[in-house]
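Throughout this review, each integer encodes one residue's backbone shape. One record appears below.

===
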Amino acid sequence: MHTGEQYHEFMLASPRDRAVRARFQQLALDLLPAGAAVLDFGAGTGIDAKAYAANGHPTFVFEPAEAMHDCLMRHCHDEIASKSIVAVASPLACTVQAVTANFAVLNHFVDHAVLFEQLSRVVQQGGFVLASLLNPYCLGDARYRWWRANLLNLVRRGHYAIPSESRIHRFAPRIVARAAMPYFRLERLAPRGLGLASELYMFLLFRRV
């Protein structure tokens, strides 16, 4: 598991992860009105936050992991100094048009209901939450024993946890959508259909209602 500077360099060097990040960032930027504020929830080392700020969006960053936060403060030093990026100790410390959570941040939660209730106090009416989650249907993971062992759990319950130190959870989109109600509705899922079999990440767009 990479942390801090190692994670930062790995993500910048990985062609696959750069491609996923570019798609996520472009979707977020296409959805954001000009000059709208955004909260990067689980901001990591600030790679996405730096892109949002560069495109004229006041950006708040919440990152609870100390090693990641320290790297973020170094990587985004100039933006923090100019206040185009503002680090917050709690997501509730800001009000924004959008919340983004890239690279499986929400997979670290057992249940998203409390999180979405909190985010409903952060996201303005008509705003959105955009999240990338690990795709439980990705056939690229079928080579792993844990994936095959949890197929029945996925079908029956729509979610399961991988027995590891981080206890990463995998969720069917309907489970996250149900947890988001009544504050948010699932507006978009990408990819859909057969595309879910080939992509490691799925993007879920939730609209504040």
